[in-house]
Amino acid sequence: MGQILSQPLTDKESESGQNKHLAYGLSCMQGWRISMEDAHTTILDLEKTNNNNNNNNNDDIKTDDDNSNDDNETKTASTSKNTVTDSTDPVAFFAVYDGHGGDRIAKYTGDNLYKLITKEPEFHKGNFGKALQNTFLATDREILEDNELKLDQSGCTATTVLLNSKKIVCANAGDSRTVLSVNGSAKPLSYDHKPNNEGEHARICAAGGFVDIGRVNGNLALSRAIGDFDFKKSTDLPPEEQIVTAFPDIIEHDITENDEFVVLACDGIWDCLSSQQVVEVVRRGINDRKSLVEISESIMDVCLAPSSGGSGIGCDNMSIVIVALLQGKTLEEWYDHIIAK
C-alpha cells in the first residue's frame, strides 16, 4: 500500500477552464499517502500553447507562483496551460499521471509529454492516435537522455485524451482510466493494464519476466508505464515488447449528441468506485448544479477511507478531471440539457 500518514491530507488543489467547445473541472488530493505522486495536464488549445512555448511567450501559463485568478482558471500545482481559445476547432489535451516509486517521472511527464505531441508529423495529419503512441515512447527516450532521471527507479501511468468538437482520442498506459458518459451510461475509453491480463501476461513472459501474486516480477502491480526502466532492459526487443512498456492502447470515439462528459482519473478513484458509479455521481452533481470542480472534490471525499487500517482502498493519492462536451451550448445550457434528460 505504500507509506501512509497518521492523518490524511485533505486539502485539495483544484482548477477549472473552458472554451466554446469544452469546460472542465479538476481536483487532486494527497490523502493518506506520505507524498503526492500524481501529476496532470490540462490544455484547452494544444497547438497554441506549444507555439507560445516555442516562442518563449508563456503569458497563458499558470504556475505555483502565479497569483492571478479569473472565472475560467484557478492556480494548480501541476501543469495547466489554458486560455479561452478563439480557434475554429482547437485540439484540447487532458491527462492524469499516477506515479509509483516516487514522483519524479510523473512530474516530468506532466510537464513535458504534451510538448512532444505537436512535434509528431502524425498529429498534423490528423492521426492523433499514432501521434500519441509515438509521443509516449518519445517521452521514455527523453527521460533516458537525462543523466539523472534515467537512474530514477520510479514510473507512472498515463491516461490521456486529445479532443476537438468532433472526436475524442484516448491513449492509455497503466491502470489509470478514462470513461465517457453516453446518456448516463459509462463507455470505456481505456482498459486497465494489469499483469494478469492475457495479452499483458504473454508479453511479460515472452520478454523474460514473470507474474507473481498479480505483479510483474512480483513487484509492479501494472504492466504498462512511462519510466520503470528496470523492466525495459532487453536490448534485443523493441519498446513495445519489453516486460513493461510505455506503448499505449488507443481508443477513438466520434462525438455524438448523446455524449455528455469525459472523466479521467487515477486508480485512487477507480479502486473505490466503478466507472458507472462515477458517471452517476457526476450526473447527480450536475442535477444539483454543482460546478465541475465541486463534483470532482466531492468524488474524492467519497473515496477517501475513514481510516488507514483497512484494505488500503481509499488511502491512495487521488486525481480526477471532468470534461464537459458542450457541443454548441453554453455551460449553463449544457447543465440544463443533462438535467432535462
From TrEMBL:
Entries under InterPro entries matching the protein: PP2C, PP2C_BS, PPM-type-like_dom_sf, PPM-type_phosphatase-like_dom
EC id: 3.1.3.16
Pfam families xref list: PP2C (PF00481)
Reaction(s) catalysed by this chain's protein: O-phospho-L-threonyl-[protein] + H2O = L-threonyl-[protein] + phosphate
Region (Disordered): 47-84
Polar residues composition bias: residue spans: 75-84
Name used for this protein in its record: protein-serine/threonine phosphatase
Organism per entry: Wickerhamomyces anomalus (strain ATCC 58044 / CBS 1984 / NCYC 433 / NRRL Y-366-8) (Yeast)
